[in-house]
Amino acid sequence: MSDASPHAEAKPGASTASVEVNKAVCRRWIDDFNARDDEAEAGARSVDYVAYAPASIDADPMDSDGWVEMLGVFLTGFPDLQITVEDAAGDENAVAQRVHFEGTHTGVFQGLPPTNKRVSFGGIEFNRMVDGKVAEHWFHLDQVTMMQQLGLTVVPGPRLVPTLLADLVKKPFRRRSSK
């Protein structure tokens, strides 16, 4: 991440110091995760911390205990998982970060036995900050890329299959009507 990034600029009226402190807290939070320093990682979260994952991971908001449990699922499957901050933007109340994940699938992950394949994929996170701590955390991961790298093919769900079949049936008729 480059501190010279145009995205790093504070909004008019925002305290540049508080913006930089918030960005540093979020970066240190990831560094603490990478170091597997559970106490320091927990210290970056507020007492009433809430996390929001993509629905495919967990549809319900997670408190700190739920967050730790979800991290445990990832670390069981990818014990060497590392996250890198690629870019960050923020103001006195929030920090958004573009992050990159890398790890090796050497443990069971969501029921999938180890493939010993290395994954590398991106993500986006948004952190609402209160008193120098992360109070709310939203994140999205490129799960399609991760699953493809594990050798899994994404199959359309049952609600999509009828739509795909209907499109295939209609396709010959569209060609005739366009002539």
Provide the structure class: alpha+beta
- Main sheet specs: 5 strands, mixed
Instruction: Determine the oligomeric state from the structure.
Output: single chain
Outline type: globular
Q: Any low-confidence stretches, pLDDT <50, length ≥5?
A: 1-11
Global Rg: 20 Å
The percentage helix is 25-40%
How is the largest sheet built, in terms of strand order? 1-5-4-3-2
What's the total count of β strands?
5
Number of helices: 5
Describe this structure in words.
By secondary structure, this protein is an alpha+beta fold. Helix content is 35%, strand content 28%. It is built from 5 helices and 5 strands, in the order ααβαββββαα.
Short description:
With 179 residues, this protein is of the alpha+beta class.
Features:
179 residues, five-stranded mixed beta sheet, alpha+beta, disordered N terminus, 5 helices
What are the SSEs and their pairings?
Elements: H1 16-34, H2 38-43, E1 45-52, H3 64-77, E2 82-90, E3 94-104, E4 118-130, E5 133-141, H4 143-149, H5 161-177
Parallel strand pairs: 1-5
Antiparallel strand pairs: 2-3, 3-4, 4-5
